[in-house]
Design brief:
alpha/beta, Rossmann fold, Pantoate--beta-alanine Ligase, Chain: A,domain 2, six-stranded parallel beta sheet, three-stranded antiparallel beta sheet, globular, binds pantoate
């Protein structure tokens, strides 16, 4: 694995890979890598001869009172995991590489509408920060294919919308969420949980599974299901932000007859804000 910190070295390495006829697969990350990232790196290999990963904790996607300063930074361990998972080029830029004129002056990229709902409503400006940095990284890495975890379901949709709107010649691939044996979705923010909170945390996914089961019942009352899921989370000790049933295609509220749905949830447990989701495909009789 080759680690590079500046965009000129990155461009040269990518050029050499392309000249050798290899497709470029890209996995952007904020580091503190875990088995969920490893799955992304390994799947990238299915799509591309050269796998590029980036590690950059992007200040633009954190709100003023969020965890940017305390976000876990574990570069040495990350390098080892990335190398073992078959990453060919690890790009670890600093702020100057990503925002050369300074972050305040940086041109923003924003997908209106979908950026402002669900997590975007609770974290104003978050998704503008995500689409801005991913656009910048795409321009530096010039991938043929980029892979994103479906745990961040809204982010995955926004990146697809951005790539489509801007005519980016990049396949955007979503990869299923990797879970601990008890169901908890792997996330760097799980590290914020105390032992007692970690024991409660799997209830988030369990609540989604219960809600999905009830969604399959004929004539299911979606607002009632959402309310009872929020109550279940509160009873387990979460401070729920939202539980919402949406359409997979655009995250709009489902219309009668919509069958490809997704239940999305965000909830606080201590100082960790956890998110998760579950796709539900109703059968024609459902
Ligand atoms: O999902 C993440 O880790 C980040 O939002 C991303 C896509 C690397 C952009 O900073």
């Amino acid at each position: 694995m080759r680690a590079v910190t500046d965009s000129a070295a990155l461009a040269a390495a990518v050029r050499a890979a392309r000249a050798a006829g290899r497709r470029i697969g890209f996995v952007p990350t904020m580091g503190n890598l875990h088995a969920g990232h490893r799955a992304l790196f390994e799947r990238a290999r299915d799509h591309a001869g050269t796998v590029v990963a980036s590690i950059y904790v992007n200040p633009l996607q954190f709100g003023e009172h969020e965890d940017f300063q305390g976000y876990p930074r574990t570069l040495e361990l990350d390098r080892q995991l990335a190398a073992a998972a078959g990453v060919d080029i690890l790009f670890v830029p600093d702020d100057a590489q990503i925002y050369p004129r300074g972050r305040a002056a940086q041109t923003r990229v924003e997908v209106p509408g979908v950026s402002d709902i669900l997590c975007g409503q609770s974290r104003p400006g978050h998704f503008r920060g995500v689409t801005t940095v991913v656009n910048r990284l795409f321009n530096l890495v010039t991938p043929d294919v980029a892979l994103f975890g479906k745990k961040d379901y809204q982010q995955w949709l926004l990146i697809r919308l951005m790539a489509g709107d801007l005519g980016m010649p990049i396949d955007i691939v979503g990869i299923d969420t990797v879970r601990a044996p008890d169901g908890l979705a792997l996330s760097s923010r799980n590290g914020y949980l105390t032992d007692a909170e970690r024991a409660i945390a799997p209830r988030l996914y369990a609540t989604l599974v219960e809600c999905a089961g009830r969604l399959h019942a004929p004539g299911a009352d979606i607002p009632a299901l959402e309310a009872s899921a929020r109550e279940a989370l509160a009873a387990a000790g979460f401070r729920s932000d939202y539980v919402s049933v949406r359409r997979q295609a655009d995250l709009a509220a489902p219309a009668p007859g919509d069958r490809a749905l997704v239940i999305l949830a965000a909830a606080w447990l201590g100082r960790a804000r956890l998110i998760d989701n579950l796709e539900v495909n109703l059968n024609p009789a459902g």
